[in-house]
Design brief:
Helices cover 29% and strands 29% of the residues. α1 packs parallel to α6, α4 runs parallel beside α5 and α7 packs parallel to α9. The strands form six sheets. It has a five-stranded mixed sheet. A hairpin with an 8-residue loop joins β7 and β8. With 427 residues, it is an alpha/beta fold.
Length: 427
């Protein structure tokens, strides 16, 4: 990172397409009948991994300049791949695709990079096995690589111990192939992009509180998907706009789905000047522009049902807490331990290196502020959320932050550093 300190952040920015929605548009388009046109598709490495996996499964996909045309072959149109499917760094690809592969009439091996083969897959293996799937963790450690032998699916009602959209989606996708309705009840509501988009494709999906149900026996029909900007990517610009003095940013075309907008609520709870303007809806997804102005922040407690709505934003919230007056406590976030890195340990280690007053807890962290931060070398652990958080920290600290593995942002936001630099008003 350049040793350029921002005296303010000014301007408008259009955030790249939502990663979760981009994944699902490819996946559902592949098993739909007819063509699905996707605009504002995220050109990140994770979403490209999803695209390549479906090409390996015999789906023709045209892709150019953020526009994608998926030539769907229906629920049973996938072909046996001639080599193991490689999801790269994408847990979404692995877990959602497993739900579909469990119901096919062929055997598949699915794996990924060094991070993926350490991430827990028992959370999908258990319910899919209950539905009739034949799934084996090749190294018998409940992680990828997975060997999946397609079987006939049976409808179940699954009580999940974690609020996870990936687990829920794997079950609902397998439920498309089941003999009777399949439902999943979560401890709290995870992001619901799957339910919204499946309805858009014509599936019969119902939601009742924290329970989602899919009714089999119908086909998906190709359609058009305009992907909104990713609020998880917008989070870094929201934080920069709040933390850098004399700043005003308009972040345009951002998805503000209520199962994803916890960051907005926390910013306001901390005293942040964040306003949603130009609200509208596209394909069932709520969208808005986000106006952010510099603010003096206060510490807060973040816990309970809001955690699944901001789980990916907790690293940058922890940075905001370092600049807030008072103590911020983050609880009920043990899920951070099984992300691309152990984000509790990684954030505590790296923020401590910058001089922050931060302590890890069993399910989160405690941060006392405000504390001046200084430059240091930090290790992103090849986790894109960590690298982007410390790029924002570099704007406000004394001295320079060197980010090891900074190119991992290509997973979700290849142009991130250039966009951040463009908005900086420097000394």
């Amino acid at each position: 990172m350049k040793d350029t300190k921002a005296i303010s952040m000014k301007g408008n920015i259009m955030i790249p397409g939502d990663k979760s929605i981009s994944h699902r548009a490819i996946i559902f388009g592949a098993i739909a009948e007819g063509d699905t046109k996707i605009t504002n598709f995220l050109e990140g490495a994770d979403c490209i991994s999803t695209m390549e996996c479906f090409r390996d499964l015999g789906i023709s996909i045209d892709h150019q300049n953020g526009e994608v045309l998926v030539h769907g072959k229906g629920l049973y149109g996938l072909s046996t791949p001639d080599h193991p499917l490689d999801v790269g760094n994408s847990g979404t690809t692995l877990r959602l695709l497993s739900g579909i592969l469990a119901a096919q009439d062929f055997t598949t091996t699915i794996t990924g990079d060094e991070s993926i083969v350490k991430r827990p897959m028992k959370r999908i293996m258990d319910p899919l096995t209950m539905m009739g799937a034949d799934m084996i963790s090749i190294h018998h450690n409940d992680c990828a690589p997975l060997l999946i032998k397609g079987k006939r699916m049976f409808g179940i009602h699954y009580l999940s111990h974690v609020a996870s959209a990936q687990v829920k989606s794997a079950i609902l996708l397998a439920g498309l192939y089941a003999n009777e309705p399949t439902s999943i009840t979560e401890p709290s509501l995870s992001r619901n992009h799957t339910e919204i988009m499946l309805k858009h494709f014509g599936a019969h999906v119902t939601s009742n509180g924290v329970t989602a149900t899919i009714h089999p026996g119908q086909k998906l029909i190709g359609c058009e998907i305009n992907v909104p900007g990713d609020i998880s990517s917008a989070a870094y610009f929201i934080a920069a706009g709040l933390l850098v003095p004399n700043s005003e940013l308009l972040i345009q075309n951002v998805g503000v789905n209520p199962t994803r907008d916890g960051l907005i609520h926390v910013c306001k709870q901390m005293g942040g000047n964040v306003t949603l303007v130009n609200k509208r809806t596209s394909g069932g997804e709520p969208i808005a522009d986000i106006l952010v102005k510099s603010s003096s922040l206060n510490g807060t407690t973040i816990e309970g049902d809001i955690i699944p709505t901001l789980i990916d934003e907790i690293p940058v919230i922890a940075l905001m807490a370092c600049m807030a007056k008072g103590t911020t406590i983050i609880k009920d976030a043990a899920e951070l331990k099984v992300k691309e890195s152990n984000r509790i340990d990684t954030m505590v280690e790296n923020l401590s290196a910058l001089g922050a007053d931060i302590t890890a807890t069993e399910d989160g962290m405690m941060i006392k502020g405000p504390t001046p931060l200084h430059g240091a070398t930090i290790d992103s652990k090849m986790d894109h959320r960590i690298a982007m958080t410390f790029a924002v920290a570099n704007l406000i600290c004394h001295g320079n932050i060197t980010i090891k593995g900074k190119d991992c942002v290509n997973i979700s936001y290849p142009s991130f550093y250039e966009e951040l630099e463009r908005l900086i008003q420097s000394v």
